[in-house]
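Exercise 7b. Backbone tokens:
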């Protein structure tokens, strides 16, 4: 019995039908894997961007809620805070420790405020401060808690509705 050898693509094949054009070459498979790897890297990068944005939106929502609550308090009592009977600036804070325990809270005594968290956590990522002065002005600040993986932007809103992100840019 004679075995016929066929030379094709610099390969020697015993059986032309067995090693025909019905498969993928190693280079084609490597190209597909490279494309999949690039797509995975890009999607992970954009996923991280969206996670960061959602965490920042947590602070924006809480600031908007606090601004509404402070304005509502003024509409009822004629001033922005309970101690604002004078021209001094009064400071109210809501802060949590790294494990989520409230360490400072003199906001919820006069405003019904429970900070909303981004959906992937049981602790807040920002601490909040209200600086109010009589019936003329207030500024509410959200400062990121450094151990909770958020951007370093300090967000603020004031009585005129001016919103800044720490670099005087509006959010």
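Sequence design result:
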């Amino acid at each position: 019995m004679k075995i016929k050898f066929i030379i094709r693509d610099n390969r020697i094949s015993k059986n032309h039908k067995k090693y025909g054009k019905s498969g993928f070459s190693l280079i084609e498979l490597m190209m597909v894997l490279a494309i999949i790897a690039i797509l995975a890297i890009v999607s992970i990068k954009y996923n991280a961007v969206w996670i960061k944005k959602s965490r920042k939106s947590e602070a924006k929502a809480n600031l908007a809620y606090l601004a509404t609550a402070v304005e509502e308090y003024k509409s009822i009592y004629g001033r922005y805070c309970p101690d604002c009977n004078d021209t001094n600036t009064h400071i109210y804070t809501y802060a949590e420790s790294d494990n989520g325990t409230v360490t400072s809270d003199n906001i919820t005594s006069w405003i019904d405020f429970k900070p909303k968290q981004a959906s992937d956590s049981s602790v807040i990522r920002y601490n909040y401060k209200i600086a109010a002065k009589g019936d003329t002005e207030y500024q509410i600040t959200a400062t990121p808690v450094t151990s909770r993986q958020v951007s370093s932007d300090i967000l603020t809103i004031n009585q005129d509705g001016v919103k800044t992100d720490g670099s005087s840019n509006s959010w």
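Instructor comment: The mean pLDDT is 83. The longest strand covers residues 89-96.
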